[in-house]
Design brief:
single chain; elongated; mainly alpha; 135 residues
Length: 135
């Protein structure tokens, strides 16, 4: 089996995982939540209006402040909604899973044993200047 074939097989296994199924269920619930979708549409409309007002040469700071406040209030409501909270939790779990998979593969490419490498014990902050080394 080639590396690409194994990657495709891993993709199938990920799609069969509980983490993935939970993410898809949470996404569907969010997509089907009419109130949430209306709030998201309203958020996008306000954001566009804010961008247009901010780009004007004679932009009204009072209007910009009002739109900003409206945007932040709506953002908070969206993020606090039950379906969005569940989606974000499921997304965080799948992101952690994928980061762990990527860490194991990167460790293997760097010569570490992928069977014993613990991605939870190795956290890369992204800055090589503070790193003690990948291997």
């Amino acid at each position: 089996m080639t590396v690409i074939e194994m990657a495709r097989e891993m993709g199938k296994v990920i799609q069969e995982s509980e983490e993935y199924k939970n993410l898809m269920a949470a996404r569907e619930a969010s997509d089907n939540d009419e109130n949430l979708q209306q709030q998201i549409q309203q958020f996008n409309l306000i954001r566009m209006n804010l961008e247009m007002e901010s780009s004007k040469e004679d932009a009204e700071q009072e209007k910009i402040s009002s739109l900003n406040e409206e945007l932040m209030t709506l953002y908070t409501q969206i993020m606090d909604s039950d379906n969005m909270s569940k989606f974000n939790e499921a997304k965080e779990i799948i992101d952690t899973l994928m980061n762990n998979v990527t860490s194991i593969l990167a460790a293997a490419v760097n010569g570490e044993d992928p069977m014993t490498f613990d991605p939870e014990a190795h956290h890369c902050g992204g800055s090589c200047s503070t790193c003690g080394g990948c291997h």
